[in-house]
Design brief:
39% of the residues lie in helices and 14% in strands. It has 446 residues and is α/β, with parallel strands linked by helices. The strands form 3 sheets. Strands 2-9-8-7-6-3-4-5 form an 8-stranded mixed beta sheet, sandwiched between helices. Strands 10-11-14-13 form a 4-stranded antiparallel beta sheet. The chain has a two-stranded parallel ribbon with strand order 1-12. The structure holds 4'-deoxy-4'-aminopyridoxal-5'-phosphate (PMP).
Length: 446
Amino acid sequence: MDTTPSRSSPARLGTGHSTRLDPYVDRYAARTAGMTASEIRALFAVASRPEVVSLAGGMPNISGLPLDVVSNAIASLVRDQGAVAMQYGSGQGLPKLREQITDVMRLEGIEAHPDDVVVTVGSQQAVDLVTRVFCDPGDVVICEAPSYVGALGVFKSYQCEVVHAEMDASGLVPEALRQAIAAVQAAGKRVKFLYTIPNFHNPAGVTLSAPRRAEILEICRQADILILEDNPYGLLGFDSEPHRALRADSADHVIYLGSFSKTFAPGFRVGWALAPHTVREKLVLAQESATLCPPQFSQMAVSAYLAQHDWQGQIKQFREMYRERRDAMVSALADMMPGACRWNVPDGGFYVWLMLPPGVDAKKMLPRAVTARVAYVPGTAFFADGFGAGSMRLSYCYPTPERIREGVRRLAGVVEAELEVRTTFGAHLAAPELNGSNDAPGVDLT
Ligand code: PMP
């Protein structure tokens, strides 16, 4: 069959497909129109050079993990249970691990039965499965403004409409949620669920206050809206006991997502969903059609780690390490950023959200920042509707405190220069060219 594209073959316009010659362009499913490469991919390829301080990626810093403990656990797993560990497993996930997961969730006030847990390939797959189970094209998902870029990508790929609801320093604003629900209903559409990250938000760094937790639950209960509670950072708080999960106070209206990526290691790709019983059945069917089963080997490795190691002590060490990095970032920002910048001081997690002085555009400024050897993620990446130009996400999880300080110093210089240019010329400098490839491997979408 000749797949050579002819000049007369119909070209699809406005689908978001690659502009390179693609012989398959007229065959892709409509849903692929939402699967677009991030506009900042090319910049990330450059940002991953060693001379650049990357405050962009959200990679967990796992250098403190006890590799001897992990390698011993994996060696004995292969030696003693290899034939099971390397076999297919159950679509719902390993019963022993599901039981251990209920112990983890108990730290946030959740009493759950292992039967209601579905193990997934990271919590990212859980977002995908929940969306697959609930959303038809055009269905509405309400998300915080801003929201996690990886979840927005899932919602787009299932052709959902994302409606944003505002946050402030205490997390999602209840009145904004009420208004978003009313606006969707007035348009004759159905909200399929509220997607929320209540703790140490990615990217906003804020945490939903206790009184608001009750209020958000009540609003969703009254409107009969399901909540998708995504909580990969919940055990990484710096100052407090873990916050009580929304799911702890509502077993029927909340699907809770957890992950071992930040509390252990992301390479195992083990996360989970805890769902009301009937939903759990659908999720298992969706999981079976997606992967047959989550990887047995990874699950057994995570299970052995939890059984043989002081995992809570390890999380405490992670928290201390991240707290030191948070402190380095906020003190560097206070010392060096131009006065008109604003940012929050997160109580946990990986991220600071920074608002630039009025008129400064984070995306337009990024090439200049990368030239100055510092990278961040422009705020627009975290909105489905093009908002966020005046803001950026800064991650402190990965670089050392010294590198964080140096990165902020470079960033402050770039913002200063931007302000000076605006004062002098009232316009942007032409952005420098960067030779990144749009197909760069290892792009960090976390
Ligand atoms: N949800 C949020 C809010 C995240 O920040 C991430 C990753 N950074 C994920 C889900 C996915 O994590 P994983 O698939 O590694 O569990």
